[in-house]
């Protein structure tokens, strides 16, 4: 629960005779208050800190500069300082990506909690893969973590005829695509996906450790190998930790196909 004005951590006095520069004392005290959970809703501005600690604005700026270098706050010229946001995972638009690789590329530790890994029948998923409704499938459901914080609920269906060796894989810290290539000799070469913003259900909010005010990105992917569907996946990713980017040029630009939303079932 965020601290209120009545129970916030009090500032410690800065001692001019302590032999330590005032900005370093201020830096240390702000770091202490951050560790104790203060400033979760709003970080104080330069003038507020100047008045609270009785120091010059230059001293405040030096302390904030040091905190910025530590990655604890962001503070740029002309903009108020604020708490640094959790590491964000960025995915390229229009490219075949691996969420596993993208998390690691962001210098965050990747781990998954495997909720389900089994062979099953799912008529809807089979049809999405262009198969008969009774075709056996391999189903993998994971809670994806980045630096031990929930990032995504990931569900994938693959034809059992080619993906059955995946039942022996440990997906707690590995990529589905790496295991698919190593164990099944199948590499994805393309596909299609749809990304849209959704409001997670209460159960999904609990798994992702988010409140009702945080939206999520629902990514639905059909992965193919040489044009043949081999993976249908739905990923529900925290909107506060995920973004997509697109490269474009003045000459060629880029195109986005807009489609009317469809209702998809989602298993979580």
TrEMBL record:
Signal peptide: none annotated. PROSITE patterns: HTH_GNTR. One of its GO terms (molecular function) is DNA binding. GO terms for biological process: negative regulation of DNA-templated transcription. Pfam families: GntR (PF00392), UTRA (PF07702). Coiled coil: none annotated. SMART domains: HTH_GNTR, UTRA. The keyword Hydrolase does not apply. Residues 20-86 form the HTH gntR-type domain. Keywords: DNA-binding, Transcription, Transcription regulation. PANTHER family: GNTR-FAMILY TRANSCRIPTIONAL REGULATOR (PTHR44846:SF17), MANNOSYL-D-GLYCERATE TRANSPORT/METABOLISM SYSTEM REPRESSOR MNGR-RELATED (PTHR44846). This is GntR family transcriptional regulator.
